[in-house]
Specification:
Shape: globular
Number of strands: 13
CATH superfamily of the largest domain: Spore Coat Polysaccharide Biosynthesis Protein SpsA, Chain A
Distance between the termini: 68 Å
Helix content: 40-55%
Largest sheet: 8 strands, mixed
CATH class of the largest domain: Alpha Beta
Strand content: 15-25%
Number of domains: 2
Oligomer: single chain
Number of helices: 8
CATH architecture of the largest domain: Alpha-Beta Complex
């Protein structure tokens, strides 16, 4: 059986980190689990080390200061020793048998990277019902539409969300780009595009998914809404300057300027509506 290293960056979310560690260690194909504790102020490192004392497959790398997800993931990947590496966020929940399904698809498709759709669930939503009615598209997820399943068992795609299985050798050619900052928007997409441009086969499958229920607490530093949106636009423009010409050649985007303008309009509409509501309330006083 192929062996897998699971790499998880985490920060100030010890309960989620421990749950993800126990899940990873229970998977038959997992050879090692590497957590990168990225400048946590809570008991994450201590709780993970307690688990590591019980299972030597768990390794804990501790950053005394927060370096951000791209650098933290690169640190974990460099420490990985298996043929395959699964990178997954601490707050994302995997579907049943996810690792086994990703390995199976990698073999069937001759793929170097295999990802799955991703869903953001409300507290009252049922994941099985959401997956059952999720739309399908010929190539699976699209730019900023991570919850689309491919129409076939797998399809080539560079628009997957964060969690994916990588052949370890992919990282001999590419890495997470540490130039993404702030909220690190587009850092995962950048990696998939970089892998495809380097000649690796990148696919998405309908045989699994990941989802999040809540982003309360921990993770990246929370910013004001305006600063958050500024990070989105800045990182997106960096991504387009880096990959826009290639993406246009592949007919995956219309053009860098058009994509940036479209994103700006989409992201500013909620802010404009919120500002309008505040002005209305102020005027009615």
């Amino acid at each position: 059986m192929a062996t897998v290293s699971v790499v998880v960056p985490t920060r100030n979310r010890s309960h989620l980190a421990c749950a993800r560690a126990k899940w990873a260690l229970s998977q038959p194909a997992v050879r090692e689990v590497i957590f990168v504790v990225d400048g946590s102020a809570d008991d994450t490192a201590a709780r993970l080390q307690s688990l590591a004392d019980q299972d030597s497959r768990l390794r804990v790398i501790v950053n005394q200061r927060n370096v951000g997800p791209p650098k933290a993931k690169n640190m974990g990947i460099r420490a990985a020793t298996s043929e395959w590496v699964l990178v997954i966020d601490d707050d994302d929940i995997p579907s049943d048998n996810l690792i086994a399904e990703l390995l199976r698809v990698a073999q069937e498709a001759g793929a170097d990277v295999v990802g799955v759709p991703w869903f953001n669930l409300g507290e009252a939503e049922n994941v099985e019902e959401l997956v059952a009615r999720a739309p399908r598209a010929p190539g699976g997820p699209q730019l900023d539409r991570p919850g689309l399943f491919p129409e076939t068992a797998w399809a080539q795609c560079v628009w997957m969300p964060a969690n994916a299985l990588f052949r370890r050798s992919v990282f001999d050619a590419v890495a997470y780009d540490e130039s993404y900052t702030g909220n690190f928007y587009r850092e995962e997409t950048d990696l998939y595009v970089s892998a495809a441009r380097a000649g690796h086969r990148v696919v998405v499958t309908d045989r699994g998914y990941t989802y999040i229920r809540s982003r309360l607490g921990g993770g990246i530093d929370r910013q004001s809404k305006l600063r958050y949106e500024y990070s989105v636009l800045r990182n997106n423009w960096y991504f387009l300057r880096k990959h826009g010409a290639w993406l246009r050649e592949q007919r995956l985007i219309r053009g860098s300027t058009q994509e940036q303008t479209s994103l700006f309009v989409r992201r500013m509409k909620p802010l404009a509506r919120a500002a309008g509501r505040r002005l209305t309330r102020w005027a009615q006083r």
